[in-house]
Design brief:
Helix content: under 10%
Number of strands: 5
Structural class: mainly beta
Order of helices and strands: EEEEE
Largest sheet: 3 strands, antiparallel
Strand content: over 45%
Number of helices: 0
Shape: elongated
């Protein structure tokens, strides 16, 4: 795929607490969200996250779902 989503991302752990991030997409004609990537480990420093996007002639939406656990 030549289509990529790129963003800066960090989620440092705080003692035993770890935040997480899930990146999802859905086609306009669908009500179902599909996971593109998930980040569930310690990322102490800012870094680029690069995710290949599915090729589609139909418009789609991207969502970021986070779980905050004091990290």
């Amino acid at each position: 795929s030549n289509h990529r989503l790129t963003f800066k991302h960090a989620q440092p752990a705080y003692y035993n607490d770890q935040d997480s991030l899930i990146v999802l997409y859905k086609l306009r004609s669908s009500s179902n969200w599909t996971t593109l990537a998930s980040f569930k480990t310690d990322i102490p420093n800012w870094r680029n996250a690069d995710i290949d996007l599915p090729i589609s002639s139909e418009p789609f939406q991207i969502a970021f779902q986070t779980y905050i656990l004091n990290g």
